Amino acid sequence: MNNGATPVVALDDAVVISSGFPLLSGVTLQLWPSSLSVVTGANGAGKTSLLRLLAGLDSLTSGSGTVAGIDLRDGDLRLLRRRIGWLGHEGSFYDDLSVKENLTFAARALGRPLDEIESVVARVGLSGRINTSAKQLSAGQRRRLGLAWLLLRRPELWLLDEPYASLDDEGRTFFDHLLADVVAAGATVVISAHDPLRSSALNPRTILMSGGSIVEEST
Amino acid sequence: MIRTALLVAGKDLRIEVRSRVLLWQVVPFGVIALLLCGLALGPAHAGSSSAGPGLYYLVTLLVTLLMINRSHVVERAPGTKSSIATLGLDPAGVFLGKSLALAVELWLTGLVLLAGAVLVLHTALHGALIALPSIVVTLGALACAGTLYGALTAGGETSATLLPVLALPAFAPLLIAGERSFYDALHGGELLGWWVIVVVALVAYVAIGILLYGVLDE
What we know:
heterodimer, A: alpha/beta, Rossmann fold, 4-stranded antiparallel β-sheet, 6 helices, B: mainly alpha
């Protein structure tokens, strides 16, 4: 699977404790470029905590790990955050700004060309809503805006927390096709989901979590 | 850092223009509070009282607390904080940008309240105009200090009530210096000493913010 490549994610006995509560308790994991992994498990299993650790949003308490070549213990987490794409299950943007204004802010912050915005918006099917404020979008459209935000960023590691929530069948199919494209382009994608992916075409690696630990992996 | 500051300031100001919270909620609150101050003094004392500058800054302080909370609430919406964190923005630039946006909002509100003080508290217009530069600097310093304390208290469930408790002691020297310079402007006193205090405070808060905002925000 690795074809001699360097893993994008390498965790060794990673432990994350927050306010005395263990969120992750000894996770060992390697993820390779151009791969899709689905982290499943019940509520509180540690799915979101794992994604947050990989995003550099939470710190390691013990153990070791690297993400995109950056050490999670003493590396530059701000640099790491710039290299990943995060889509939380709540939304990812400023409600009072329009679709275009949100994407313009992200593009300017990341030094991306502004002329890509319209094509990205068209790709996620929001061209007709480009000047609509984010708070006026439906839940599914907000998901698409989140995807546009990620497409604009072109991260090497995509971390998607419950991305299928609020998506209808058409949205899910669109999302599956998009994931297939970005994985084919070399990105590493990690999804957290309650259930295994519906699309068999994606052929993901499934990681089952419980109590902050990985209890089963299957390909 | 400057590029990030301008980006963040532009974003914050655009959000205020879109949401109109400042226009329809914060400014009317300040005007009503000023009106109540005038009523509390009574028509016989409003013009002759020396409390005008103090009441002006008291109302400005209440408005400032609302605006600091507002400035940080937009960043703490569920999901937004994590996503913005992944942009990897320079914390010093974010501090300067948020302070600049807050300062612009405070300057606009401060102008409206100054006009209100002239109308409601019968503060002398000529003295108010002389006091204007010191008000601008004082509100700028309040914006910088407020951005720092806003980052310190934001995120918790009690941030709205914790902010005044933590920030008021830090704001007190600024308010005293601002009030004194306003008073001296009205009564022909020496302004320079109070000016120096406010300018030094502004520089100190800018320097502290540039150095510490990243740590506080984390």
